[in-house]
Amino acid sequence: MNHLLEVKDLEVKFGLRMGDLTAINGVSFTLDRSERLGLVGESGAGKSVTGFSIINLISKPGYISGGSVIFEGRDLTRLTDEGMRHIRGNLISMIFQDPMMTLNPVLTIGTQMVETLQAHMDISRKDAEGIALKKLRKVHIPSPEKRLKQYPHEFSGGMRQRIVIAIALLTDPALVIADEPSTALDVTIQAEIMDLLLELCESEGTGLILITHDLAVVSQVTQKIAVMYAGKIVEAGPTEDIIDNPLHPYTQGLIKALPDGRNPGTRLNQIPGVMPSLIDIPPGCAFHPRCMIRGDICRRESPALREIYGYRSMVACHMLDAAEKQAGANVAK
Questions:
Q1: Structural contact between residues 128 and 118, judged by C-beta atoms closer than 8 angstroms
Q2: Which helix (H) or strand (E) holds 95?
Q3: Tell me: the pLDDT tens digits for 306-331?
Q4: pTM, to two decimals
Q5: Alpha helices, DSSP H only, in the chain?
């Protein structure tokens, strides 16, 4: 089966005076057409760097040092700048966290949408405005004819993010990468934006990579999840399985840290310690200093991401390996 996107052993480094620092270390995942994947983890886990790597937008001194990004059969890491310009914004679009950083404050919404279309397509201004109006209606912007003539500061935060989504969809991309698209918004608007993304993906057949730290948001929108920690994927599988039965201690900690509406007033659980920096990633399993079930092997060897017998998820954890071996021994008896 041909995947829409296949990321294989992706490695990203940042060249500094002290030497190269590895930000992404052997990340692999696939995405099919119209499928929705959530990349989840704390700040510093490598989620956004992974998203930027897919469209080759890593800022120097960062660079892709290994692996491949196969999109519709082409390895994007091997394309020229001209080749990437055809892909970026045309076949793959990105939605950023802060719409005011995406939108030009001195240009009307209409001008920005028309210029985006004309940059990627041989199209007249009149036809471009027609497509822009259609996309504004798609994202439920009222009075779109009037809105085309307005400037970004004349819109609320939620409306600006809807416009950014409309711009991302102008060229009917096969894949949209959304980097924390609702973090700067209040909770009710967050829910509206997530519902909108889900609706558009289902109606347009667009693939989605949703980058977020919020497992609650991911559980409502995506079909599968990849949990990242210190530049690696530590657990990956169907969303329902990971939310209902997380296997990796880090994933368990993230889910336990979610507010529990059934017991208001109780203290939130938290994972002890902090995410390690790139210059101080511990040997062995990077999570072991914060892990409650770590063993000696966790300090020495980095666990591989692999399937666990009886589960659909893949997990990188030595302690689960040991538990599975024990279960196998018990079955053999």
A1: yes
A2: strand 92-95
A3: 998 888 899 999 998 665 554 444 43
A4: 0.91
A5: 47-54, 81-87, 99-102, 109-120, 125-138, 144-147, 157-168, 187-204, 215-221, 239-244, 249-256, 296-300, 318-332
